[in-house]
Amino acid sequence: MICTLCFSFIIEGQTVDQVLDLRLSKAKLLTSRGKYKSAYLLLIKNLEAKKVHPASYYYLSKLYSEKGSLKKSFQVLYMLIKKQHRQNFLNKRFDEVKFDKELSKEALQTYFLIAQKYLKESEDGVYSKEFQTKLLLLAKKYFTVCEIHNYKIASSKANIGKIYIGLNNSEQAIRKLLDATKNIPDERNKSFKTEKLTKEDINLLIGQSLIKEGQVEAGKLYLRQVSNSPSSSTSLKEYSKTMQDFLKKEYIDLDFSYLVNNSTNIFEFRDTEKQSFQTLNPDNSESGIYHNRNINFLMNKNFFEKWHVKFNASYGDKVATDSLQKAANERSLTMGIETGIHESSTSTINLKYELESFYSSPSTTNTTILKEYSIAKFVASWIKASSKATYIFRFPYEKYVYDRTDNTGSGLGVTFSYIPFKKTQYWNPQYYGSYKNIYEADASTSTSLIGGITNKSIINDNWDLVSSFDFENRSNELSSLSYTQLDFRLNFTYYYQFLKDLRSDLGLKSIQRSYSDNDKMGQIDIYAGVGYTF
Q1: HSE of 428 in the Cβ direction (CA atoms, 13 Å)?
Q2: Angle, alpha carbons 69-72-32 (nearest 5°)
Q3: Rounded to whole angstroms, what are the CA distances from 235 to 18, 76, 124, 221, 226?
C-alpha cells in the first residue's frame, strides 16, 4: 500500500509538469494560428493549477501586451508575484518588501521582467510625457529590488542608469552606470551566463549621458570605445557609429545677448587713479551704468569623411550710458578655427587658431574707439576620458601686438581642467588651473598662476545657477604688473518654456586686485539682461 502511494505521488508530480508544459505548447500553437480564445482558455487552466507555472504567466502577459492591453499584462505578472511570495509577505509595504531577505530567485525574476516591461513601454513613445515619466519611475522601483538582492545586478544598475537618462538626470545616470561597470560578470564565470550585459553596453549609455550633459568630447570618446572594441556586437557598433555621425553633423549656431550692468568702477581704476580722476573731473564718478552686447557665431563644417572643422566668431561691446564716461567704452572682435585629431579610443587632440582684437579710447579726453592691441592664439588640447572624470590639458602660445606703440609680447603656458562624473543636482563642478610665462611689451617677464572652480546648480527645469571663484597671482619686477586677484561670479539663468531658446540672466561679478605696491583695484557689477540662440 505504501509503495503504491509513493509510486502514484511520483507519477502525479511528473504528470502535472508535463500537463502544464503541454498546455503551454498547445496555447503557443493556437496563437500562431490566430485562435487566441482557445489559447487563453488553456493558459487560464495553467494559472488555476495548484502548482505555479511561471512560463504560462509570462506568455499570457506577453499576449496581452501584443494585443495592446497593458493593464491586463501587468495584472498577470502581479498575480504571479502573489503566488511566489509568502502570505505574510504580501501585507508588507514596498519599502519593507525590497529589503526582505527571503525573496526567492523566481520572484526576483518576475520583478526584473516587470521592470523591463515598464521600461520598454516608456521607450515606445506612444504615451504622454507625464505617463512616460510614471512608467520610468515604476521601472526604477522594480529594478531597485533586483539591485538590492544582487539579481542580475549589472543589468539592474545599468537599466536604472538608463532610466535616469530618460528622466533627464544625467549626473545620477553617469554615477549609476559607472557603478554598473564594477559588476559586469566575468565571461569565464559560467554562473553568470544569463547576464548578457557587456562593458560596451554600459559605455554606450555613459557616452549618451555625457553628451546629454554637455560634455560632448568625453561622450564621443566613450562612443569610440564601443566602435573600436572587438567584443562589441554589430548592432552596438552601428548604433554607436550613428550617434557619432549625428554629432559630426553640420550646423550653424548664432547667439545674441544684451545686458545692462551697474558697475562700482566702470573705468577699472586703481585707488590712486580714482583720486586723480576725481580731481580732474569733479562732476564725474568712476561708478556708472553701461550696456553690454554680445553676438557669438559657431559653424561646424565637414570637409573629409573623418575630419570636421569648427569656425567661431564673436563681437562684443561695452557702451556707457553717461556721455561723460565714453572713455570707458570698449569693443572686441574674435575669429577662430579648430579641428580635431583622434589619437585613440580614450583620448583626442584638438588644434585651434584664434585671433582677438580689442578696441578702446586712447584717453579720457579722446573718446574715439581705436584699436588697442590684438592677440593671436595657437592652442593644442589633449582631452582624456577615464572611468571617473574628463581631463583636459591645453598648451597655448599667444602673440601680442600693441598697435598704438608698435610693441609686441608673447605668452606660453599650460592649463588643466578636471571634470568629475560624480555629480548631484546642485554640485556639478569643474576644477581648473594654469601656469603661464608672459613676455611683456616693455621687455619684462610676468609669471601668472591661476586656480579656480566653476559649479553649475540645476535648481529646476527653468532655473540654473552658475558660480565661479578664481585666484590669480601675477609676479613682475614692475609693481603695475605684479598683483594678486580674486574673481567671484554668480549667474542665474531663467529658460522660458514657451520659447526654449530664449533666456534671461541676472548676475553679480566681483573683482578685487591688490598690487605689490599696496595699491588696490575693486569692482562690483550687478547685471541683468536677455539672450537668444538661433
Answers
A1: 20
A2: 65
A3: 38, 32, 19, 19, 11
**Across 148-172, average pLDDT:** 82
How far lies 457's CA from each of 25, 161, 177, 491, 494, in Å? 56, 20, 21, 10, 12
pLDDT in tens, 446-488: 999 999 999 988 888 788 899 999 999 999 988 888 999 999 9
pTM score of the predicted model? 0.62
pLDDT in tens, 221-256: 777 777 666 666 665 665 566 566 656 666 688 999
**Which of 268, 264, 266, 263 has its CA nearest to residue 521?**
268
Condensed to tens digits (0 to 9), the pLDDT of residues 308-318 reads 788 999 999 99
Alpha-carbon gap, residue 463 to 455, rounded angstroms: 14
Q: In the numeric block, which cell numbers belong to residue 327? A: 572713455
Secondary structure letter of residue 517 according to DSSP: T
Distance CA 245, CA 502 (A): 28
Q: How far apart are CA 102 and CA 88, in angstroms?
A: 12
- Say what angle helices 105-123 and 129-148 make with each other, to 10 degrees: 160
Report residue 55: phi and psi, to 5°: -55, -35
Taking the C-alpha atoms of residue 448 and residue 472, their distance in angstroms, rounded to an integer, is 7
Give the DSSP H or E segment for 284. Answer: none
Element (H, E) at 205: helix 199-213
pLDDT tens by residue, 318-328 = 999 988 888 88
pLDDT, greater one: 305 or 250: 250
Instruction: Identify any residues that bridge with 378 across adjacent strands, giving them in sequence order.
Output: 353, 397
Would you say 522 and 493 are in contact if contact means Cβ atoms under 8 Å apart?
A: no
Bridge-partner residues for 335, per DSSP? 313, 355
Mean pLDDT of 38-53: 79
Range with the poorest average pLDDT among 116-120, 171-175, 310-314, 395-399: 171-175
Amino acid identity, residue 134? K
Could you count the other beta carbons within 10 Å of the beta carbon of residue 118? 23
For residue 348, give the nearest of 356, 336, 335, 338 by alpha carbon.
338
CA 233 to each of CA 208, 228, 230, 236, 313: distance values in angstroms, whole numbers, following the listed order: 18, 11, 8, 5, 41
Q: What would the pLDDT profile of 398-437 be if each residue is shown by its tens digit? A: 999 998 888 899 999 999 999 887 667 788 788 999 999 9
Does residue 32 contact residue 52 with C-beta atoms inside 8 Å? no
Q: How far is CA 34 from the centre of its chain?
A: 48
- Please tell me the total number of residues recorded for the chain in this structure: 534
Q: Comparing C-alpha atoms, which of 73, 23, 11 is closest to residue 48? A: 23
